[in-house]
Amino acid sequence: MPEPSDFPVVVHDLHLKRGGRVVLRGIDARFEAGKITAIVGPSGAGKTSLLRCLNRLEDPDGGRVLLDGTDIRSIAPTELRHRVGMVFQGPILFEGGIRANLAYGLRDVREEDLLWALREAGLKDEFLTRDSSALSVGQAQRVCIARCLVRKPEILLMDEPTSALDKDAAARIETLISTLADHGLTIVLVTHNLAQARSVADAAVLLVDGVVAAAGAPSDIDEAWSREVRS
Ligand SMILES: Nc1ncnc2c1ncn2[C@@H]1O[C@H](COP(=O)(O)OP(=O)(O)O)[C@@H](O)[C@H]1O
Ligand SMILES: [Mg+2]
After folding, report:
1. Rounded to the nearest whole angstrom, what is the distance from the C-alpha of residue 45 to the centroid of ligand 2?
2. Is the pLDDT of residue 4 over 70?
3. pLDDT digits over 143-193, tens only?
4. How far is the C-alpha of 186 from the C-alpha of 29, rounded, in Å?
5. Is 130 part of any domain?
6. Domain that holds residue 37
7. Number of structural domains, the chain?
8. Which protein residue's CA is at the shortest distance from atom 2 of ligand 1?
9. Residue of 14, 16, 17, 23 to mutate, ligand 1, most atoms within 8 A of C-beta
10. 126 CA to centre of ligand 2 in angstroms
């Protein structure tokens, strides 16, 4: 059985309102080191909102998020954003070189670190000198992943990272996600796709209407999914 210290991210009784609407109502969850935990649930369940609370893109109205036992509100934002990387649903790169995209906001970044991040994201060294405008969506998503990796995160948050991709590109990104976890990253993967959670995740949290409806092994939430999620 994993020890409590094996869970670098712990969420306690999280509540969030947005625009007068209750979005998260008392979320308890924990995310195991070096594993892939999927947050699954139907559209509007609060998956993105929960993920955004994990690196303070949102601040909850109640409850707390602990990173290695420390409330993330007491961690400096720049430190937090390095330790907890975020990959968004659609790959967002600015116009210009991939090198500039990877190094954005960083001082004294080393060439070898940029190349390491590209390789870790499954891209060849030559991408460093390419332009961001000439990429496939899958390649752009890899550059976004590499941009996080340059910052040497402990945790990688991914919000539906394959939803903009075709089936083959999505399968390749799923393989990459597994490889990153094998290399020690702790991954929180938001997906509305239960099959994806079953194929890549070690654990899953089912979110329905801002509440945790089930948590456990991905196969354990099937029953709750069929009960809670009307398709
Ligand atoms: N900025 C916002 N203002 C008002 N309501 C929001 C905002 N962001 C999200 N919501 C609402 O919160 C609920 C959960 O949204 P979200 O976290 O995006 O769900 P999911 O990612 O599971 O689809 C939805 O009902 C959505 O309409
Ligand atoms: Mg979402």
Report:
1. 8
2. no
3. 999 999 999 999 999 999 999 999 999 999 999 999 999 999 999 999 999
4. 14
5. no
6. 4-90+154-228
7. 1
8. 18
9. 23
10. 33
Residue 175 lies in a domain: yes
* Structural domain contains residue 9: yes
Binding pocket residue ranges, ligand 1, CB within 6 Å:
18-19, 21, 23, 41, 43-49
How far is the first Cα of the chain from the last one, in angstroms, to the nearest whole number?
Answer: 35
* Mutation test residue for ligand 1: of 14, 15, 18, 86, the one with most atoms within 8 Å of CB: 18
Spatial strand order of the sheet with 21-31 comes to: 21-31, 9-18, 62-67, 70-71
Give domain status of residue 149, yes or no. Answer: no
Cβ-based neighbours of 224, under 8 Å, separated by 6 or more: 206, 213, 214
Q: What is the CATH number of the domain that holds 201?
A: 3.40.50.300
pLDDT per position as a tens digit, 183-228: 999 999 999 999 999 999 999 999 999 999 999 999 999 889 988 8
* Spatial contact of 19 and 204, defined as CB atoms under 8 Å apart: no
- Mutating to test ligand 1, I would choose from 15, 25, 49, 88 the residue with most ligand atoms within 8 A of its C-beta, which is 49
Spatial separation of the C-alpha atoms in residues 15 and 9, rounded to whole Å: 17
